[in-house]
């Protein structure tokens, strides 16, 4: 399977099920605006002046699969996906949900795509905030980053959300490499409103998630597996060397080979932090083999 076919194929996470895609636009930018019109970020209450019920904030973003996301939308209104929804009929998700739905629709309409986990430098000056975007393949074979979430005019960002510069959104491996080479401060990578969530250890978590996503395993942002590290002091020489290897990869084939390493590959079960516990407690989630296995 070549790159075009690999990223055109839906994964168990992105598969939109029986969605009628006939009325969908084919233009990536129009699809990004469509996604923006059916999802509200669960943290946008103040920005958009719309209160989001607490149950939706806690529960919607636990939807792992696009089929679940679409089911929730159908339960809140019978509007077609191409019609802009009032806020109270939208799915209340995270940046990962904007990115995954856009990825699913791009694939469904003939554009190879994937989601990327990394850090955005366009939310808070001087800080690289934990974030997910969509990456799609252009006809010339190059890749372009697009951030459907910030296409809303309420986001006064200084980037083009339809063509996000690589130095303003760093995929996790690039963030790791920049910090290890001394070009960036690990303390400026994490969750800006939570002072305890930053540093190399946090970048490491996103390196795992991004590598999985590139290999078709598009997990929730709070899923973890393997050896869990919670501080830079806990990073071992083996940890550093393994992350250095992932960050040094330059091709999709290299990332694919790395994913075969049992230390990096998503197992059949992950531990997922639960929103209702304030992300303090984990629950075990069993993933079907067809979900945790990489694409061929």
Automatic annotation (TrEMBL):
Where the record annotates domain Transglutaminase-like, the positions are 92-148
Stretches that traverse the bilayer = none
State the species of origin: Streptomyces resistomycificus
* Protein's UniProt name: Transglutaminase-like domain-containing protein
Give the InterPro entries listed for this entry: Papain-like_cys_pep_sf (IPR038765), Transglutaminase-like (IPR002931)
């Amino acid at each position: 399977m070549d790159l075009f076919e690999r990223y055109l194929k839906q994964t168990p996470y992105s598969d939109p099920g029986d969605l009628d895609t006939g009325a969908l636009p084919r233009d990536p930018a129009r699809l990004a605006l469509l996604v923006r019109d059916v999802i509200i970020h669960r943290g946008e209450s103040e920005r958009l002046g719309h209160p989001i019920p607490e149950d939706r904030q806690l529960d919607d973003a636990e939807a792992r699969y696009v089929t679940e996301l679409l089911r929730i939308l159908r339960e809140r209104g019978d509007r077609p996906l191409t019609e802009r929804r009032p806020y109270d009929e939208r799915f209340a998700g995270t940046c990962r949900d904007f990115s995954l739905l856009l990825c699913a629709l791009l694939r469904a309409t003939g554009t190879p795509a994937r989601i990327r986990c990394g850090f955005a430098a366009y939310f808070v000056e001087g800080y690289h905030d934990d974030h997910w975007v969509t990456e799609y393949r252009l006809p010339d074979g190059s890749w372009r980053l697009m951030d459907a979430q910030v296409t809303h005019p309420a986001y006064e960002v200084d980037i083009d959300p339809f063509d996000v510069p690589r130095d303003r959104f760093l995929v996790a491996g690039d963030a790791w490499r920049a910090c290890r080479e001394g070009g960036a401060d690990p303390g400026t990578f994490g969750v800006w409103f939570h002072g305890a969530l930053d540093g190399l250890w946090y970048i490491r978590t996103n390196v795992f998630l991004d590598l999985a996503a590139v290999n078709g395993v598009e997990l929730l942002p709070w899923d973890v597996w393997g050896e869990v590290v919670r501080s830079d002091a806990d990073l071992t020489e083996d940890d550093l060397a393994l992350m250095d290897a992932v960050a040094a990869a330059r091709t999709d084939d290299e990332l694919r080979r790395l994913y075969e390493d049992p230390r990096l590959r998503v197992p059949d079960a992950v531990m997922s932090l639960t929103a209702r516990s304030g992300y303090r407690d984990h629950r075990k989630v069993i993933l079907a083999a067809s979900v945790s296995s990489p694409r061929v």
